[in-house]
Amino acid sequence: MNVYKLTFWRVMVAVILLSAWQLFGGDLLSNPSEIGKYLVEYGGLNGEFWPDLQSTFQATAIGYFFGAIIGLVCGLLLAQSEKAAMIFKPYVLAVYGIPRIALAPVFIAWFGIALLSKVMMAGMVTFMLVFFNTYEGVRAADLDLRNTARVLGANRWQLFFRVTLPNASPWITAGLRIAIPQALVGAVVAEFIASERGLGFRMMENTGQLAMEGVMGGVLILMMIVVILNSILDKVEDYILRWRPKQSDTETN
Amino acid sequence: MAESEPIISLRDVSRVFHAQRGDVVALSEVDLDINEGEFITMVGPSGCGKSTALNVIVGLLDATTGDVLFRGKPSRGINKEIGYVTQSDNLFPWRTVIENVTFGLEMQGIGTKAERLDRARQLLDRVGLNGFENHYRHELSGGMRQRVNIVRTLAYDPKVILLDEPFGPLDAQTRLQLQDLLLELWQERAGTTVIFITHELTEAIALADRVVVMSARPGRVSEVVPVDIPRPRDIFSIQSEPSFRSIYDRIWEHLGEETKVAAL
Lengths: 253, 264
Fold this sequence. Notes:
The complex is a heterodimer.
Chain A: H1 3-24, H2 26-29, H3 32-43, H4 49-80, H5 82-97, H6 104-111, H7 115-139, H8 143-151, H9 156-193, H10 199-208, H11 212-240
Chain B: E1 8-19, E2 22-34, E3 39-43, H1 50-58, E4 65-70, E5 73-74, E6 82-85, H2 97-101, H3 103-107, H4 113-126, H5 142-154, E7 160-164, H6 172-188, E8 193-197, H7 201-207, E9 210-214, E10 221-226, H8 244-254, H9 257-263
Parallel strand pairs in B: 3-8, 3-9, 6-7, 7-8
Antiparallel strand pairs in B: 1-2, 1-4, 4-5, 9-10
């Protein structure tokens, strides 16, 4: 199938689904034209979308920043010590096993309904993903490569920065990468529960008024943000890990 | 070869690995003197402790008993005078070819960055890898990877170079070419000592001043066979040398019966 045909059929699927939605949507699903109208108003120059986005983005970014740094440092430190790793392993696994969303009400109780609780939620989600991936990545360090580096004259520090860290970089990058959309979800979930502004707040407000076009519009906005973030992150990841074989390369060893 | 003090001496070296199903003696009372500038090959069945011997010599493993002497002094920990070319290429996949080659120089702080790159480029040129400087490991063939692996060790000119079946997985043609290249590079570096493990008898004879024949587990030296074929040698026709057959037979004889199948 060539590119044009592929595009044609993809557009057709969208047209059919949207038409069906428009015709049979009803009250609870709203319909595309209502949602479109809402999005134009909400996302217009003077719409409330922009302060909402800023609020959510702020919480996500601050939380992500600190969560990533702390996760990275903790992961690297814990992986250094065999004993510490053995002692903490069950606790790490237990904490990792907590459904992260379940912590949102706790964080609201601890940190209030303003920005801080959203920052903490995004930060905690980021921390767990980055921490776990970093830890696993460092633990998976290739003994043969380490020995090779030692024979070639690497000291302890060089071994860490020139071998262990780059060797763990695919894991670390993966953690940093999946944490971005997850941090956003963390912040939005905290907004669902209690907040005064933000994308999640707006969706809850619309739900309360049974303004389904607003709720659906919110879902659509979140979807687009995550898709855009993912495509940017794919590019960044490809660049950082350009030394790795592509999946299309048949020879792997 | 020089009759001065050996550069490496193994004195009664044994190495035992503790496993859950009992101890495994990988090396048993190995005694061996290696002279400066010598090319030694080691042959023996798989599992006879050849690789263990190299790991002990370079200092990645401690001997359970006995001593490894370097220029007459016991050596502890990793010996920086010894380079080690492992059986799998162990290239750093996140580094380009040239960055792999400069790794040792970089770690040891030898030269400026420009000098290091210059040196690496010259060596890569020598082994026919010009144009591949900025490739990553996954973009190279097995033979190219092994060439980079060897050049990475040659780059910082260690006094002793250990090679553990470096041409093992390669096809016969590539293998011969690399043997030839290795001999050439060794002859350019006067005084460099080489210990080369292989299970291929022809390769062992073609390269060596002396062939160390190891016996099956527990690994010990069963015979040391001198190779008096004059240098420079023609790797491609080594088998037609008059003394080749008798050296071959002598090594064959000392490989234990149970190991001959593995050596074929």
